[in-house]
Design goal:
About 35% of the residues lie in helices and about 20% in strands. By secondary structure, it is α/β, with parallel strands linked by helices. The chain has two domains: about 130 residues, D-Maltodextrin-Binding Protein, domain 2 (3-Layer(aba) Sandwich), CATH 3.40.190; about 100 residues, 3-Layer(aba) Sandwich (D-Maltodextrin-Binding Protein, domain 2). It binds glutamic acid (GLU). Glutamic acid binds next to helix 5 and strand 11.
Length: about 270
Amino acid sequence: MRRFAILLLVMAVVGMVCGKAAAGDTLAEVKKKGVLVAGVKDSLPPFGYVDEKTRQIIGYDVDFVKAIADKLGVKLELKPVTSASRMPQLIEGNIDIIAATMTKTPERAQQIDFSVMYFFTGQKFLVKKGTVKTLADLEGKKIGTAKGSTSEQNVAKAIPTATILSFDDYPQAFLALQQGKVAAVTTDESILAGMRGKAPNRDDYEIPDIQISDEPYGLGMRKGDKAFVDFVNATLIEMEQTGKAAEIFTKWFGPDTTTPLKRNFTITADK
Ligand code: GLU
Protein backbone atom coordinates (compact mmCIF):
# COMPACT_ATOMS: atom_id res chain seq x y z
CA MET A 1 0.00 0.00 0.00
CA ARG A 2 2.74 2.38 1.04
CA ARG A 3 4.83 1.44 -1.98
CA PHE A 4 1.84 2.13 -4.20
CA ALA A 5 1.38 5.58 -2.62
CA ILE A 6 5.05 6.38 -3.18
CA LEU A 7 4.77 5.23 -6.80
CA LEU A 8 1.77 7.50 -7.33
CA LEU A 9 3.65 10.41 -5.78
CA VAL A 10 6.69 9.80 -8.01
CA MET A 11 4.45 9.64 -11.08
CA ALA A 12 2.73 12.88 -10.11
CA VAL A 13 6.08 14.66 -9.58
CA VAL A 14 7.46 13.35 -12.90
CA GLY A 15 4.30 14.51 -14.59
CA MET A 16 4.61 17.99 -13.08
CA VAL A 17 8.32 18.28 -13.90
CA CYS A 18 7.71 17.27 -17.51
CA GLY A 19 4.84 19.75 -17.67
CA LYS A 20 2.74 17.34 -19.68
CA ALA A 21 -1.00 17.82 -19.51
CA ALA A 22 -2.85 14.64 -18.66
CA ALA A 23 -4.96 13.65 -21.66
CA GLY A 24 -8.02 13.80 -19.44
CA ASP A 25 -8.60 17.45 -18.64
CA THR A 26 -6.91 20.01 -20.86
CA LEU A 27 -9.72 22.48 -20.18
CA ALA A 28 -8.90 22.60 -16.45
CA GLU A 29 -5.11 22.56 -17.13
CA VAL A 30 -5.30 25.45 -19.58
CA LYS A 31 -7.37 27.53 -17.17
CA LYS A 32 -4.88 26.76 -14.39
CA LYS A 33 -1.76 27.67 -16.37
CA GLY A 34 -3.47 30.69 -17.99
CA VAL A 35 -2.30 29.88 -21.50
CA LEU A 36 -3.57 27.85 -24.44
CA VAL A 37 -0.73 26.39 -26.53
CA ALA A 38 -1.79 25.88 -30.13
CA GLY A 39 0.15 24.07 -32.87
CA VAL A 40 -0.16 26.09 -36.09
CA LYS A 41 1.49 26.27 -39.50
CA ASP A 42 3.94 29.16 -39.86
CA SER A 43 4.44 29.33 -43.63
CA LEU A 44 1.00 28.63 -45.10
CA PRO A 45 -0.87 31.83 -45.92
CA PRO A 46 -3.65 32.50 -45.20
CA PHE A 47 -3.98 29.79 -42.47
CA GLY A 48 -0.82 30.38 -40.44
CA TYR A 49 2.15 32.50 -41.57
CA VAL A 50 4.56 35.11 -40.27
CA ASP A 51 3.35 38.69 -40.76
CA GLU A 52 6.19 40.65 -42.40
CA LYS A 53 5.63 43.74 -40.25
CA THR A 54 4.96 42.34 -36.78
CA ARG A 55 6.87 39.00 -37.13
CA GLN A 56 3.83 37.36 -35.45
CA ILE A 57 2.12 34.28 -36.81
CA ILE A 58 -1.32 35.26 -38.16
CA GLY A 59 -4.05 33.63 -40.24
CA TYR A 60 -7.42 31.90 -40.39
CA ASP A 61 -6.37 29.04 -38.07
CA VAL A 62 -4.82 31.51 -35.63
CA ASP A 63 -8.02 33.58 -35.42
CA PHE A 64 -10.00 30.48 -34.41
CA VAL A 65 -7.66 29.48 -31.57
CA LYS A 66 -7.47 33.14 -30.51
CA ALA A 67 -11.27 33.17 -30.15
CA ILE A 68 -11.09 29.98 -28.06
CA ALA A 69 -8.33 31.42 -25.81
CA ASP A 70 -10.34 34.66 -25.41
CA LYS A 71 -13.44 32.72 -24.40
CA LEU A 72 -11.35 30.84 -21.82
CA GLY A 73 -9.85 34.13 -20.61
CA VAL A 74 -6.28 32.87 -21.15
CA LYS A 75 -3.30 33.93 -23.26
CA LEU A 76 -2.54 32.24 -26.58
CA GLU A 77 0.87 30.75 -27.35
CA LEU A 78 1.59 29.55 -30.89
CA LYS A 79 3.99 26.73 -31.71
CA PRO A 80 4.84 25.97 -35.36
CA VAL A 81 4.09 22.41 -36.47
CA THR A 82 4.33 20.55 -39.77
CA SER A 83 1.82 18.11 -41.22
CA ALA A 84 3.97 15.21 -39.99
CA SER A 85 4.77 16.62 -36.51
CA ARG A 86 1.36 17.94 -35.42
CA MET A 87 -0.15 14.69 -34.06
CA PRO A 88 2.98 13.55 -32.15
CA GLN A 89 3.32 17.08 -30.66
CA LEU A 90 -0.26 16.91 -29.41
CA ILE A 91 -0.07 13.36 -28.10
CA GLU A 92 3.21 14.11 -26.28
CA GLY A 93 1.57 17.10 -24.58
CA ASN A 94 3.75 19.82 -26.17
CA ILE A 95 0.66 21.57 -27.51
CA ASP A 96 -2.97 21.66 -26.30
CA ILE A 97 -4.70 21.89 -29.67
CA ILE A 98 -3.90 21.56 -33.37
CA ALA A 99 -5.11 24.36 -35.65
CA ALA A 100 -3.06 23.53 -38.72
CA THR A 101 -5.02 22.93 -41.97
CA MET A 102 -5.81 19.48 -40.66
CA THR A 103 -8.40 17.26 -42.32
CA LYS A 104 -10.65 15.10 -40.17
CA THR A 105 -10.18 11.49 -41.23
CA PRO A 106 -11.33 8.21 -39.64
CA GLU A 107 -7.68 6.99 -39.43
CA ARG A 108 -6.54 10.11 -37.55
CA ALA A 109 -9.64 9.96 -35.35
CA GLN A 110 -8.36 6.66 -33.96
CA GLN A 111 -5.49 8.58 -32.36
CA ILE A 112 -6.92 12.02 -31.60
CA ASP A 113 -10.30 13.72 -31.28
CA PHE A 114 -11.52 16.37 -33.69
CA SER A 115 -13.77 19.38 -33.25
CA VAL A 116 -16.68 19.93 -35.60
CA MET A 117 -15.64 21.09 -39.08
CA TYR A 118 -14.50 24.75 -39.18
CA PHE A 119 -13.32 24.91 -42.82
CA PHE A 120 -14.04 22.94 -45.96
CA THR A 121 -11.95 22.56 -49.10
CA GLY A 122 -10.77 19.91 -51.56
CA GLN A 123 -7.51 18.67 -53.00
CA LYS A 124 -6.36 20.14 -56.32
CA PHE A 125 -3.13 20.85 -58.25
CA LEU A 126 -1.04 23.98 -58.74
CA VAL A 127 0.72 23.96 -62.12
CA LYS A 128 2.45 26.25 -64.62
CA LYS A 129 -0.24 27.91 -66.71
CA GLY A 130 -1.50 25.86 -69.66
CA THR A 131 0.41 22.66 -68.83
CA VAL A 132 -2.39 20.57 -67.28
CA LYS A 133 -6.02 20.25 -68.35
CA THR A 134 -7.01 16.82 -66.99
CA LEU A 135 -5.67 14.27 -64.53
CA ALA A 136 -4.28 12.28 -67.49
CA ASP A 137 -1.79 15.13 -68.16
CA LEU A 138 -0.10 14.23 -64.86
CA GLU A 139 0.36 10.51 -65.61
CA GLY A 140 4.00 9.46 -65.08
CA LYS A 141 4.96 12.96 -63.87
CA LYS A 142 6.70 14.10 -60.68
CA ILE A 143 4.33 15.75 -58.21
CA GLY A 144 5.30 17.57 -55.00
CA THR A 145 3.40 17.53 -51.72
CA ALA A 146 4.04 17.41 -47.93
CA LYS A 147 4.96 14.50 -45.68
CA GLY A 148 2.28 13.23 -43.35
CA SER A 149 -0.59 14.81 -45.28
CA THR A 150 -3.78 13.40 -46.72
CA SER A 151 -2.61 14.97 -50.01
CA GLU A 152 0.29 12.51 -50.18
CA GLN A 153 -2.05 9.53 -49.83
CA ASN A 154 -4.83 10.83 -52.09
CA VAL A 155 -2.53 11.65 -55.01
CA ALA A 156 -0.82 8.24 -54.86
CA LYS A 157 -4.28 6.66 -55.28
CA ALA A 158 -5.53 9.10 -57.92
CA ILE A 159 -2.44 8.87 -60.17
CA PRO A 160 -0.58 5.61 -59.43
CA THR A 161 1.88 6.22 -62.28
CA ALA A 162 3.10 9.53 -60.84
CA THR A 163 6.24 9.87 -58.72
CA ILE A 164 5.32 11.61 -55.46
CA LEU A 165 7.99 13.81 -53.88
CA SER A 166 7.10 14.52 -50.25
CA PHE A 167 8.64 17.67 -48.79
CA ASP A 168 8.62 18.87 -45.15
CA ASP A 169 6.04 21.47 -46.09
CA TYR A 170 4.30 22.97 -49.10
CA PRO A 171 6.54 26.02 -49.69
CA GLN A 172 9.43 23.65 -50.52
CA ALA A 173 7.16 21.80 -52.94
CA PHE A 174 6.20 25.13 -54.57
CA LEU A 175 9.89 26.01 -54.93
CA ALA A 176 10.42 22.69 -56.73
CA LEU A 177 7.58 23.64 -59.12
CA GLN A 178 9.15 27.04 -59.75
CA GLN A 179 12.48 25.35 -60.49
CA GLY A 180 10.85 22.87 -62.88
CA LYS A 181 11.68 19.88 -60.68
CA VAL A 182 8.03 18.81 -60.37
CA ALA A 183 5.12 19.19 -62.82
CA ALA A 184 2.62 20.06 -60.07
CA VAL A 185 2.15 20.69 -56.37
CA THR A 186 -0.87 19.00 -54.88
CA THR A 187 -2.78 19.72 -51.68
CA ASP A 188 -5.91 21.55 -50.52
CA GLU A 189 -7.11 24.22 -52.94
CA SER A 190 -7.15 26.78 -50.12
CA ILE A 191 -3.42 26.22 -49.44
CA LEU A 192 -2.51 26.25 -53.14
CA ALA A 193 -4.47 29.50 -53.58
CA GLY A 194 -2.58 30.97 -50.60
CA MET A 195 0.84 30.11 -52.02
CA ARG A 196 -0.06 31.29 -55.50
CA GLY A 197 -1.56 34.49 -54.07
CA LYS A 198 1.68 35.43 -52.30
CA ALA A 199 3.96 34.62 -55.27
CA PRO A 200 5.21 37.70 -57.19
CA ASN A 201 4.80 35.80 -60.49
CA ARG A 202 1.40 34.38 -59.53
CA ASP A 203 0.00 34.83 -63.04
CA ASP A 204 2.41 32.19 -64.35
CA TYR A 205 0.56 29.58 -62.28
CA GLU A 206 -2.98 28.23 -62.15
CA ILE A 207 -5.13 25.72 -60.29
CA PRO A 208 -7.04 23.72 -62.93
CA ASP A 209 -10.53 22.54 -62.01
CA ILE A 210 -9.46 18.98 -61.12
CA GLN A 211 -10.46 17.92 -57.61
CA ILE A 212 -9.44 14.54 -56.18
CA SER A 213 -10.86 14.69 -52.62
CA ASP A 214 -12.95 16.54 -50.03
CA GLU A 215 -11.00 17.97 -47.07
CA PRO A 216 -13.07 19.00 -44.02
CA TYR A 217 -10.80 20.67 -41.43
CA GLY A 218 -11.14 20.06 -37.68
CA LEU A 219 -9.21 21.28 -34.65
CA GLY A 220 -7.27 18.38 -33.13
CA MET A 221 -7.36 17.50 -29.43
CA ARG A 222 -6.13 14.61 -27.31
CA LYS A 223 -8.23 11.48 -27.42
CA GLY A 224 -10.90 11.28 -24.72
CA ASP A 225 -10.40 14.92 -23.63
CA LYS A 226 -14.18 15.34 -23.51
CA ALA A 227 -14.66 18.56 -21.54
CA PHE A 228 -12.19 20.38 -23.80
CA VAL A 229 -13.69 18.97 -27.02
CA ASP A 230 -17.18 20.01 -25.84
CA PHE A 231 -15.96 23.51 -24.96
CA VAL A 232 -14.23 23.96 -28.33
CA ASN A 233 -17.27 22.69 -30.24
CA ALA A 234 -19.63 24.98 -28.31
CA THR A 235 -17.30 27.92 -29.06
CA LEU A 236 -17.16 27.12 -32.79
CA ILE A 237 -20.95 26.79 -33.04
CA GLU A 238 -21.42 30.04 -31.15
CA MET A 239 -18.95 31.72 -33.57
CA GLU A 240 -21.10 30.54 -36.47
CA GLN A 241 -24.28 31.88 -34.82
CA THR A 242 -22.82 35.30 -34.00
CA GLY A 243 -21.35 35.70 -37.50
CA LYS A 244 -17.77 35.81 -36.15
CA ALA A 245 -16.80 32.63 -38.08
CA ALA A 246 -18.05 34.09 -41.36
CA GLU A 247 -16.26 37.36 -40.54
CA ILE A 248 -12.95 35.49 -40.11
CA PHE A 249 -13.57 33.71 -43.43
CA THR A 250 -14.15 37.02 -45.22
CA LYS A 251 -11.02 38.52 -43.63
CA TRP A 252 -8.80 35.80 -45.18
CA PHE A 253 -10.79 34.59 -48.23
CA GLY A 254 -13.11 37.48 -49.06
CA PRO A 255 -13.26 39.25 -52.45
CA ASP A 256 -10.64 41.85 -51.44
CA THR A 257 -7.99 39.24 -50.59
CA THR A 258 -5.44 37.56 -52.88
CA THR A 259 -7.20 34.25 -52.13
CA PRO A 260 -10.90 34.82 -52.86
CA LEU A 261 -12.93 31.66 -52.17
CA LYS A 262 -16.64 30.90 -51.73
CA ARG A 263 -17.77 29.95 -48.21
CA ASN A 264 -19.42 26.66 -49.20
CA PHE A 265 -19.95 25.42 -45.63
CA THR A 266 -21.34 26.39 -42.24
CA ILE A 267 -20.18 25.20 -38.85
CA THR A 268 -22.73 22.77 -37.41
CA ALA A 269 -22.85 20.24 -34.58
CA ASP A 270 -23.17 17.25 -36.90
CA LYS A 271 -20.08 17.63 -39.15
N1 GLU B 1 -5.60 19.07 -45.08
C1 GLU B 1 -4.66 18.08 -45.47
C2 GLU B 1 -4.14 17.28 -44.29
O1 GLU B 1 -4.60 17.45 -43.20
C3 GLU B 1 -3.52 18.67 -46.27
C4 GLU B 1 -2.93 19.90 -45.67
C5 GLU B 1 -1.89 19.61 -44.60
O2 GLU B 1 -0.93 18.86 -44.88
O3 GLU B 1 -2.05 20.14 -43.52
O4 GLU B 1 -3.28 16.45 -44.43
